[in-house]
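Throughout our pipeline, every protein is held as a single compact record rather than as scattered files. Nothing more is needed to write down the fold, since each code stands for a local backbone conformation. For reference, a complete record is included directly beneath this paragraph.
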Amino acid sequence: MEKITDLSQEFTDYRGEALPAYKLLKKLLTHRISSGSWSSGEPIPSENEMTHALGLSRMTINRAIRELTAEGLLYRTQGVGTFVAPQKSASALFEVKNIADEITERGHLHQSRVTLLEEIRAVQAPWPIDEALGSRVFHSVLIHCDNGVPLQREERLVNAEVTPHYLDQDFSSTTPNVYLGNCHPITRGTHSVEAVLPSAQQAQELEVDSAEPCLKLLRTTWSGDTVISQVALLYPGSRGRLEGSFGI
């Protein structure tokens, strides 16, 4: 209630500005987000609340919200509401870093949710895998959150023969990346990056619309001559970016 009251008062104070109503609303909402007055993951007033409190049409409110969502300042969860988006988080492209470290280095809280942990036959893998992983592999899916907002979906296939205790780990307190790195230090890797649309299940897990473009990084890692794992990392386009550096 306090949010909509403050917003209504400020909108009234600035109503005389020579701006279309939707642009003024965008300006006020942007200021609240960029100043930290409204925090990442925090719900904003609903379109109905703003329509009644500000005296604007639903179409005007929707345009402002839609544009801020497209600009990455807000995100929508179908059937739940509209929320302040976290600042776009940079994840390493050329370096294999731990997602938990990336998040905590920004002063944010990392949490992970394990949605799948199983042993499968290689022919059941969700993508064509390197034969060197073996005929049976461990399969895991985790959702990594930044201050409670899903930032990365990690789906991993692990060499079961050389990592027999993978399924016994508590991945709510550590990450597969840390565990595997301790067991088998990475000596080389390959990766590819592409833009994709999430499946219905992936969109639900990441709490995004199924029409939101995502970045998918597929990485294979070795320790010596042994393939240790293949992982597909999925990032909502509005919440993350991949970056790296190289020398010539």
